[in-house]
Every structure is written in C-alpha cells, then in structure tokens.
Amino acid sequence: MTTLPRFLARRCAEAVPLLMVVSVLVFALIHAAPGGPLAIYLANPQVRPADIERLRRALGLDRPLWQQYWTWLWAFAQGDWGYSFSDGRPVVSRIAERLPATLELVGVSLAGALLVTMPVGIITAVRRGRWVDRVATLASIAGLSIPAFWFGLLLQIVFAIGLGWLPSSGRATPGSGDAVDRLQHLVLPTVVLAIVLASGWSRYLRGSMLDTLAQPFILSTLARGLPPRRVILRHALRNALGPLMALVTVDAALLVSGAVVTESVFAWPGLGSLFTEALARRDYTVLMALLMLSASAVVVFNIVADFAHALVDPRIPAS
Amino acid sequence: MRLPVLLFVALLAAALAAPIGAPYAPERIDLASRREPPSAAHLFGTDELGRDVFSRVLFGARVSLAVGLFSAAVAGASGVAVGGIAGYAGGAIDASLMRATDAMLAVPRLPLLMIAAVVLQPSIPWLIVLIGLAGWMETARVVRAELRSLRGTGFVESARASGASHARILVRHLLPNAAPVIAVSITLAVARGILLESALSFFGVGVRPPAASWGNMLYQAQAALATEPWLAIAPGACILMTTMSVALIGDRLAAARGRNA
C-alpha cells in the first residue's frame, strides 16, 4: 500500500500543469473575440464609446494580456470567479443555484444507465453472436450515433405533443411542483441521457466480459463443475466490472459539467442550459468558469477512477 | 459490412446528385405554400417560408457530409502528425505532446466548439477546420501507442542500419503499419464530425441560414415542433442513417483487426 499514496500524489501533481494548459486555451479563446470580452457592448448602440473605455479600464482589459491572465487565474484558483456580464451577480452563485438541477438529472440518469448496462452487457457477452447480441449491438450503435438533441425532439413530439403523457420541458410546472409533477418532468431528459450513456457502457462491459471469459481461470472454474451462472456472475463479472466502473466514474464528471445538449433541449434549468444561455448573451465570465469547471471535473474524476481502480486491483500503481 | 457501405455510398450519391435530384431550388421561397405537410408535390412538406424540405435535405446532405469527411481528414492528419512525432521521438517531446493531448481531452468538446464558433463566426471551410482541430486527440493516442509498440522491432532497426532517415522510417515503415488503427479512428472521426456540425448548427452557431444543413434545419424545426412536426423527422433521420452507417463500418474495421469481435 505504500505505493498508492505516492501514485495519487503523482497524478495530482500531473493535473496542475494540465489544468494550466486548459486555462491558457480557454483564456486565449475568449480574448480572440473581435472586440474581446466587451463585444456585446460594442454591438449595442445605447452604450457610448466613453462608457466602453471606462468599462475596459474598470475590468482591467487595458492591461497586457499576460497580466490579465495571471490575475484571472489567481482569482479563479481562490474561488473568485468574477461577475456575470448579463446580470452582474457573482458567477459562483449563478453556478451554485443551477447545480442541484444538474445533480438531480445526471444522478438519476447515471443510475438508470447502470441498470440498463448490467443485464445488457452480460447477456450480449454470454450470448455472443446470437440474435440478442446482434439486436443489442445494433441498438447500442444507434444510441451512440443518434444526435441527442434529435432524440429529445422525437420524444417531445411523441410523448409530450402527440400523446400528451409527459411535459415537454422544464423541471416543474410553475405554481404546482409536487413530487409527481417533478418526476414527470424528469422522465424524458433522463431517458435521453441514460440511453446515450448506456449505449457506450454496455458495449464496453460486453468487451471486457468477453476478454475475461476468454481467460484460463474461467475454463478451470467451469471444469471444476461450478454452475455456469455462478461462474459468469461471481467470477467473470467481478473481473469485468473494474474497467466499467472506471468508465462510469469518468462519465460521472457530467454531474459537475452538466449535460449541455439534453438540458438545453428540455429547458432543464441546470449547468448545461446555463452554458447555452451564457453563450447566447456572450456572458464570457460565466462561459470561462463553466469550461474550467468542466475540465477540472474531468481531471478530478479521472484521478478518482484511477484511485478506485488501484484500490480494487493492486497491480495498477506498479504500471 | 455490405449494407452500411451501400447506405453510406447512397447518401453520398444523393448529396452529389442534389442539383439534379432536387425538385425545387433549396432556397426558393414560396409563400403561397407555407407549412404544408408532406404530399406528392412536397415529399417532406414545406417550412415556414414555403421552401421544399426534401430539396433542402438533399442540399443539406452536401454540407453535412462535406463537414464530416473533411473535418475527419483534418483531425486524422493532425492526429497522425502529433501521434507520429510523439511515438517516434519519445522522451520529453512525447511527454509534452501527450500532456497537451490530455489537456485537450479534458475540455468538453461541444462547449469548446460552441464558444469558438460564437467568437470566430466561421464560414463552412473554417467550421471544418475547427471541428477537425477539436478531434485529433483520439487518433494521436492510437498512433502513438502503435508506434511505441513497433519501436525497436527488427525491421525498424534494419531500416536504420541501412541509413534511412528519421522521416523515411516514420513515413515509409512505421505509419503504414499503423494504417489499420488510423483507418478506424478516422472513420469514428467522420461520424463525430457530422454529429458536432449538426449540434453546432442546432444551437444556431454552426452553418448559418439560408444555407441548409441537417443541423440548422432541426434548429428551425424546434420552433414549430407542435404545429409542423414533420420538419424535424427527415433531417434527423438522415443524420442518424449517416452516422450509424459510418459507425458500423468503423465497427467492422475494428473487428477485422480482432478486437471485440
């Protein structure tokens, strides 16, 4: 176990320069805009040139770019993410108020996707090449190929507009919002997100189950006369589950970054639709914060996945 | 393999033949026949300006397929260059290139492209470059991994002993051996490019009207979902058919190499 803390420390140390590269990229992109971050004011005829000059000085945009970058990065690292261009409120509180909706949608979707993945991944591996496998494989490729926004539109056409069973958008009916109502709002976006996730995961689980089933120890347990069901569920699945859990953990970064497409199509008031709203208003402070937050989430969840994998499989830190 | 290839070739042919096959000009406005449901005169109906949706889907195919194919070429070429240099050079060059690859992979692709598209307001050729530059990382990784495993093998040593230059060893000896993995990753990049273009256009920051792409037709359709749902069917179905046929081709290519068959 002595290698594990060192392994973790190394991964965390690697994350710092990685996030620095990301921050340079994000910063450069925003400042590449013609007119810079103030472009939205330049386009507004009601804002006088003198006001823009005053804003430019107040926001420090007249200083050299590298100075601006350091000021921004330093403040960002300390949790000062600036103020939203569109309503003047702190970016941190705008993000904080949207986080619960994203946690709810993504959390439920991750759980739902896992419930689909387990049986599909196992059955397709065991019945490899049979019709179940072929149908499920085709379905999962379809799930990976379908544009999530179009899938969402189709569900809205059928279940909200056509049948009228479920609401087409939002998180709750204004004025109502009891548990049943909230649950109904959750169904369609969850289906979209869960199916897209489960398509990738079940193919992955199928692959790692096949790899495991091909190993000699499976043959030996079968030869010892253990029932096949037990061999598959207790021996093969246990070994195939590690890689899948790592992938699930990495995808769980969506909890913090938000599902941009799904949330926007269903007007789900989470971080994903905060992003598209900020994009429409050219609200650069919010956009930079969200992009940095997503990238940090990806990095952190990758480390968590490695850590969990290393706990389960002691061979990992050595490599 | 046959069916997905046939489907993809058919879509490609339809896109190329759009000027011959389309019954109307894609941008022809006919206010007398606005918002018509599908009929014999308008197979997929008409939109809010009376434009023929079938003709627009055909012309949209040219944009969507071109973006998918050319962005995959950009992604593939940059991926092979980065992965090839990293895998062949090793050491500090390899380490720094792979850190850059990790950094790019950490940034969510679609949001990054959405910001880039808003900031740079790209024309279609620039959109192709942007989508390509957001997609080289996977190719770079597999090419690097393949080259690392080939380094120090006999044929590389013998080429070096007979005086071949680094460039020659890389281009003539190593990359041809990596061709199968490159093919698979570029195939995946085509599907991803089409999906990214459609998503960008759906959010109104990709291909701009009046030019038709499958994505921006869906952007229009979303506003009239309750009254003219047919506007949303054909463009989306075309995207799905294209990306799925490409994904199936990639799947078979990967299976031919013996992985996950």
Quick tags:
heterodimer, A: globular, B: 261 residues, mainly alpha, elongated
Task: Output mean pLDDT of chain A.
Answer: 86
The amount of beta strand of chain B, in percent, is under 5%
Instruction: Give the distance, in angstroms, between the N- and C-terminal Cα atoms of chain A.
Output: 14 Å
Shape of chain A: globular
C-alpha Rg of chain A (nearest Å): 24 Å
- Average pLDDT of chain B works out at 86
Number of strands of chain B: 0
Structural class by secondary-structure content of chain A: mainly alpha
Radius of gyration of chain B: 22 Å
User: Which overall shape of chain B is indicated by the principal axes computed on the Cα atoms?
Assistant: elongated
Treating each run of at least 4 consecutive H or I residues as one helix, how many helices of chain B?
11
Helix content of chain A: over 70%
The stretches of 5 or more residues of chain A where confidence is low (pLDDT under 50) are none
User: What oligomeric state is this?
Assistant: heterodimer
Biggest beta-sheet profile of chain B? none
| Helix-residue proportion of chain B | over 70%
Tally of alpha and pi helices of chain A: 14
Order of helices and strands of chain B: HHHHHHHHHHH
β content of chain A, as a range?
under 5%
Explain how this protein is built.
The complex is a heterodimer of chains A (319) and B (261). Chain A has 319 residues and is an all-alpha fold. Chain A is 75% helix and 0% strand. Chain A contains 14 helices and no strands. Chain B is mostly helical and 261 residues long. Chain B has eleven helices and no strands. Chain B has helices at residues 2-16, 18-21, 53-89, 91-106, 109-120, 124-133, 137-150, 154-161, 166-202, 214-223, 230-256. The mean pLDDT of chain B is 86. The chains are: A mainly alpha (319), B mainly alpha (261). At the A-B interface, α1, α6, α7, α8 and α12 of A face α4, α5, α9, α10 and α11 of B.
